[in-house]
Design goal:
heterodimer; A: 372 residues; alpha/beta; four-stranded mixed beta sheet; 5 strands; B: 363 residues; 15 helices; 66% helix; 8% strand
Amino acid sequence: MTHFSMRRARAIFAKEFKHILRDPFTLIMALLLPLLIVLILGNSIEFNIRSIHMAYTDADRTESSRKLVETFASSNYFRPNALENPGDGFDEILGERARAVLVIPPNFEHDIHGPTGGKVQIMLDGADNSSIVAITNYLATINQNAVQKILPDAPRATGMNLKTRYMFNPELNTRWFSVPGLAAVIIALVAIMLTTLTICREWERGSMEMLLSTPATTLEIILGKVVPYAILSFVGFILVFVVGRLVFGVPFVGGYVTLILGTLLFILGYLAIGLFISVSTHKQDVAIQFACIVGLLPAVVLSGFIFPVEYMGRIYRMVSSVFPARFYIDLSRDQFLKGSSLIDVWPQMTAMTAIAVVLIIACLVRFKRTLE
Amino acid sequence: MKRFWGFFKKEIIALVRDPVLLIAVMVAPAIQLVVYSGAITLEAKNLRLVVDSAPGDVLMDRIYRHAIGSGWFVRVPETPRDAVGAVQSGVADVAILAPAGGLTRAVMRGTGDIQILIDSMNILKAQSIEGYLSGIILTTLRDMGYAPPPSPIVFKTRILFNPELNTKWFMVPSMIAILVFLSLLILITISMTKEKETGTIETLKAAPISKYEIVLGKVIPYIAVTFLVMISILVVGLWVYHVPFVGSGLLFILAYLVFCVPASGAAVLLADYTQTQQQALLGVVIVAFLALMLSGAMFPTENMPRFLQYISYANPLSHYAYMVRNLILKGTDITYFMHQCGIMLAVGGVIWWAALRKFKTTL
């Protein structure tokens, strides 16, 4: 074996690149997929829920009870829908026709002025856990508004006020939150899917023997195969970035150098994961199973893309640290919204570098062993 | 029937012959279910809190102790001098700033603003921090007799079907639907494109069998395999996370069979348009990812723009995920069940029509 030769690595790179160009389906998918996903999901993920279906029964039928229902309706959070029979509320939730049920008992108006206060019952659908926190928060606001509407003369709560200020995303804009995370998830998907089959396809078709009979070294083969996909993934990233800025108006206050450096490390990590699957198996169908297991759900579920990593148990946090996505999502959100300097994000950078280096070494070792 | 049985055996043998593949298909879903359902929680933890208060501010200290004692918040390792800077630099997630002169004195005066400063890069986290902290501050003030009078309108909230809001109860049904869909899609699509790539599909086409027999022979073995996968992950999920199964087991199985119509149709359609396994993999991922993200199985999708809502309405995974959740946690509403099945069958019919039209048996 000779030293690393740039010329040979370039030859393998050129060969792999021709493979990509000859398969327009893969090329289009690799570029169109990021664009499509960010456009669709950027529009569809929304945590500020509106128009929650709410069934209600009003046994009081007074001005106050009507005003209470009106408060719900005018909040835009709820869409109240009158029920004939008070007992039907449970069935409405059971049959997925309502998410919430409001039951106003008789004497509601009378009780408001009494010492106990007017009590109404609200039933919420606990089976859909993802929206219930938001719904409970809305209820607090609606309660205040209802009091003002029904009892305009009631003494306002004076004295101590709580003032909340949200830093980096003052209006809690869902897009600002979801798009930087989506960038990571999409690149992870594309990078793994593109590289998983590169090596085992050559084994399955028997062209690997040919490649091995050339003077190219393991490192040259691996690099020559990875670089074209790295370029493709990076183009995908640029598309997502442009769409995020122009279509969704996400601010970018960070440094381009930091973001690009982080993105390259992140891409390298995921390409290495794909490659590792590829060198670990000689069969495409097995590789595909593992690509879907490793590529699809962890980047969505364990990365902090939606569910905060800090909330997870210790073991799960350790599992999530194996994937570069967790660190990249931190970095990407930071660069879009907060703009820390390159020095401040060193933990994320170091972690991603470490993961990539370990995986590439593992690929080389594993590849050598298969040869022997 | 004999021909079909031959097909069935061939597909099963192809799967069983490779132990790694068998593990990936049969065992991995259960592990994934346990890991993802266990990992995801909406219950806040490890939120780093700093408090900016003057020494001797009794009320502020009490709020801080309550917050740390709640289990949601943790102390910042070394107390920074500047609370605002701590949030800005990412040392803390949230800071409470006492009014000028301290909270205790402000309460005596009767006016003052308590400021809460929250890092909102993750909006879900920011919302829960706000909820928890304002609750803690209000309770502390009320305990000391400084809070505003209670509202004359009382909302008595009751949460049905999952009263403790256990995220695992929500995740297990969702993961079952997602993993079942993934299993069907990957197995059927890959099995069909593999025949194309290796050229063995020509042999099949040359054989004296109709295209329906080929397609069914490819689809039904994997429906059977996925059924076993589904039962195994259901048992593991219920057992590990103590999720109650309220509904009818028979309807649960029926729901799976109905879901197989659009899901396997989608797999065949995808295989029609892909020639190599590389293409199939990309196709599977894009279909699975979009179906998953638009299904409402993990986060709410009700507030999508109108045109996306139509897509979501045609998304069989969305209907199946809601149905599995309904069956496991709520029991059974037969009208709802029929309605969901009707949609899935209608969508499945359209997908199958397209898939069979494209599927050619001629060379």
